[in-house]
Design goal:
Radius of gyration of chain A: 26 Å
Strand order of the largest sheet of chain A: 9-8-10-11-13-12
Number of helices of chain A: 23
Distance between the termini of chain A: 55 Å
Strand content of chain A: 15-25%
Shape of chain A: globular
Oligomer: homodimer
Number of strands of chain A: 18
Largest sheet of chain A: 6 strands, parallel
Structural class of chain A: alpha/beta
Largest interface: A-B, 118 and 118 residues
Chain lengths: 581, 581
């Protein structure tokens, strides 16, 4: 790898430097940007297809508009590598030693050209409607734009935003970046509607956008720089809402990405020559493979199971399952509200829905967890991935799943300490037809087998207790091994509390009688979590309770070891805390 | 009022009894149903306009289809009075002594013709997509239908449902009941799209539904029984997804409702002769008037404020405000996700957004509270109504606002104990530009003035303490008067903790030193709430903590006094609990 000393990009320190370039110079710039995206992604991993596809639109945007006065909101902001390179941050791609200088999403701490920390889909239009209205009230005249992919358009908030954008009284441009992909293949009636528009070069009368009142424009080749410049010039300073539909090619410029777009939406470090990951994938059981094994076994035994996910099959290795059991698989698009309400409807009709949700994205479905599932006490099964402290960006933290699930009536939230326990919990959850049951999939490495007897019935939560002295440690889920280490050091009692929200009060009463201190450990924020429920229950007893988890803050790409230290989640720190009591 | 012994409705004990009626008999039935809706609503209050508008469609549905084998999901289910009358529950309208026999929403505990407890909008299509898919997997052939109003269609989940319904492989009928109203006037581009279809008798090519692939049908007069019967017969057993758009008249048959549809969406008891409420509206300051007073004062002082709500201006008395300050008012439709993201965008541009949200509906915006507002630490101000224990239906409980807001980083959740304190908190919230601030509007009656000094700065939470002995009572928000009564009886220390989520740790440490027991009182569920945070913080100290609030269950039209008793929320019960310690 080299530092590309000859690159034209080295001369671009802000969008202002673009203004005097010729089309052919900007086309050269596009090639450079593509090369740099590929080189850095090959080394570090990251989003690939979305960034390769948006290069020309990004250059054209900054050529035509005057950021940061004119403002663009990038939906999800996973496609902002080219934008970052053009707004003073190219060094983070040009020089491998500076690869870590920028975060993977838009970031106002990083640049005045970024307005929000964004990482969830479908929010851009809504944010832009608020920005446009504030501009109107303050008497401003800058251009406000939201750029959103066709995949993100399947999320309901995108439609809510469109519905309001359509009646904005002044300038507001919604760019629909139609690359015909979500993370996996895009789904639903919207796919049909966009195809009719593309196939008619934007002329189809069946146009949902003109129906809503938008001034609709279409660009057949959204990767043609001249066409994009012309399109942006035509919408600049226009005093009404416009929907600009651009047809782009996800993964453009990298042949393997064009052949398998899902696998190249986001990549781990890979070899540019072979397209193969540079870190080997281990073929051993994981929290994901165990869940799919159980589903397959139960389907083969005749259970009417539907594996439901919201556009993230790759997160759960669901691709092969989808191929093998097409009738038992549903991808609802990036639409978690739909996924959970769909599951409620499926359960009501007697089927067995198994939701596969990512903790951070599940936040969009909180009302459905309550109103549709819990208030109707429907036997929905839900596997939750990514629940726990992590070094992710602050928009992608999975620390609120216990807040959402644990505090709702009727839900039973189980937290396995081993893969064997996860298997038993899922088997039980599928067979019981009494309550909604969620299972917090371990995010830390947990043993395949359990050190203790595995329960087969979770209708009554009974703590599993390894007796020790003075101190009892309730170590929830994948923090069990931290509990083991702590118990060993202290000679303490070790408890597997099994559930994040159902307390075994009988066991707690006994533990309170025989110990001086009860410690809780959980892979979640403390507020609204497991430990506070234990502290509250034991409030009237003569026992001290120490709750360990994450403080109520957003970490932001903070190394996990540092998060643990900052929250006293090490054996040494907890031991010191006990001494200080 | 009489029992209408001559009514044809008395002979309808199930939809089966409709099958042999003539059109003119069913038209007579429609008149009877309208009369009964009006009589009961006049006596008891309830939803009016939606039920008057849907009478013919309901009769036609049950005439054509075979419920409960064929299934219909009523969106929100506030329009199910006619449905209930036709499915064995007419007595609850015919006989005033039986008025309380049925609940105001669909209710599976009440009838096999109701499939879900539903009370929030925009869920029906999503539920139906899951039901259709379960039917497919089990090999069934029944008709599945969702009926949804044009107002509910502005909620994103409705679009997510449509997107998936459009690709259902077998029967699925979506009825869009277009009465040209939300609760207030409907808003957005969807209004434009539906108007084009109505104005062209369903023939407009700019059709968002055919664009998505639906087989689209239109009924110009959805209050014509014969037309509705023909339309339903034409879609019955059809093996693909259909969108049936029907044009109905909200409030049909009651002149005052036609003249002012918003005021007659939901009514308090009224006089049928004069249309005036039978219980006088008191003209004194309330939590709502105080909030609007502050907004007006601040706007007059030049603050760039936007009052934002999601289709519920009536809940906040915002109608007059909307008239007086049109530039400072936005109704985004039934779209809480949009409302919160809009507020984030508005704040980012330097405006001052003040959200008016109902606790139960705010559940739809949990992700925006976190991802868009809190993770960006934007100074959004939010007034939360309806937060507290109530005798509402289980779908409408406002007991999770603290769960949602209090456990997110950066949010400051304030809980005033008097109207004067609410005023001070809102004034501060508008002027500070550091954090998102939410204010829990009292739902119980609170004093206009405060017994203690009112703070003017809430950047640091400092508990207000009335010293007493042995026991300290932290009485949050509108439970302060319960705290006063308890403190008086016990001679205890009384504390106004001011915030539902920011603890004054210094004061707590002192209170723990000088007291044997700390009691927390909050108008919320206990799990994930204020008291558990206090119990956790004090876990390492030698003090007992008793948390009072609601247990983690859904109450369902349970009288408030009973809810208090069930949760030991009376002075007597708490006194007994203390004796038992």
């Amino acid at each position: 790898m080299n530092n590309h000393n000859d690159y034209l990009l080295r001369k671009i320190s802000s969008p202002q430097d673009l203004k005097n370039l010729s089309i052919s110079e900007m086309e050269q710039l596009a090639e450079e940007i593509r090369t740099l995206v590929l080189e850095k992604d090959a080394a570090e991993g990251g989003h690939l297809g979305p960034d390769l596809g948006i290069v020309e639109a990004t250059i054209a945007y900054h050529y035509v508009f005057n950021a940061p006065t004119d403002k663009i909101v990038w939906d999800v902001s996973h496609q902002t590598y080219p934008h970052k390179m053009l707004t003073g941050r190219a060094q983070a791609w040009l020089d491998p030693e500076h690869y870590k200088d920028v975060t993977p999403y838009s970031n106002p701490d990083e640049s005045p050209y970024d307005y929000y920390s964004i990482g969830h889909t479908s929010t851009s239009i809504a944010l832009a409607t608020g920005m446009a209205k504030a501009r109107d009230l303050m008497g401003g005249h800058e251009n406000i734009m939201a750029l959103i992919g066709d995949g993100s358009m399947t999320g309901g908030l995108a439609f809510e935003g469109l519905n309001n954008a359509a009646i904005e009284k002044h300038n507001l441009v919604i760019v629909v970046n139609d690359n015909q992909w979500s993370i996996d293949q895009n789904v639903g009636g919207l796919v049909t509607a966009l195809a009719k528009l593309r196939n008619s070069n934007g002329q189809a009368k069946e146009n949902p956008f003109t129906a809503m009142g938008f001034d609709y424009r279409y660009v057949q080749n959204g990767n043609d720089l001249s066409d994009m410049i012309a399109a942006f010039k035509a919408v600049k300073d226009v005093d009404h809402p416009i929907l600009l539909h651009i047809n782009t090619t996800k993964g453009k410029g990298y042949e393997p990405a064009l052949k398998d777009e899902e696998a190249h939406h986001w990549v781990v470090p890979f070899d540019l020559a072979t397209d193969q990951p540079t870190t080997p994938v281990l073929d051993k059981p994981t929290a994901k493979t165990i869940a799919l094994d159980v589903l397959k076994e139960e389907i083969q035994m005749g259970q009417k199971i539907m594996a439901i996910n919201a556009a993230i099959p790759g997160v759960f290795n669901l691709d092969q399952f989808k191929h093998d059991y097409p009738d038992n698989y549903t991808d609802v698009g990036i639409a978690e509200q739909e996924s959970v309400a769909f599951a409620a409807g499926f359960a009501k009709e007697g089927g067995i829905p198994v939701l596969f949700e990512n903790s951070t994205f599940l936040q969009r479905a909180f009302d459905q967890l309550s109103h549709d599932v819990a208030a109707n006490n429907l036997p929905v099964v839900m596997m939750v991935a990514g629940g726990g402290l992590s070094s992710e960006s602050k928009t992608h933290l999975g620390i609120f799943d216990q807040v959402m699930i644990s505090n709702l009536p009727n839900w039973i939230y189980l937290a396995p300490t081993s893969l064997a326990e996860e298997r038993a919990m899922l088997q039980w959850a599928i067979k019981q037809r009494q309550h909604p049951v969620a299972i917090k999939m371990p995010t830390l490495s947990v043993p395949t087998d359990s050190a203790t007897q595995i329960e087969t019935d979770y209708d009554q939560i009974q703590y599993q207790i390894q007796p020790g002295k003075n101190i009892a440690i309730l170590a929830l889920g994948d923090f069990y091994s931290l509990g083991e280490n702590l118990a060993q050091k202290l000679g303490a009692t070790l408890v597997n509390p099994i559930s994040a929200n159902i307390l075994d009060k009988q066991s707690l009463d006994k533990l309170a009688q025989n110990h001086q201190v009860i410690i809780t450990l959980e892979n979640n924020i403390l507020d609204g979590g497991f430990g506070q429920k234990v502290a509250s229950y034991l409030g009237k007893q003569n026992i001290k309770v120490l709750n360990y988890g994450q403080k109520r803050i957003y970490t932001d790409q903070t190394p996990l070891a540092q998060i643990y230290r900052d929250n006293h989640l090490t054996v040494e720190q907890i031991t010191d805390d006990l001494k200080a009591l």
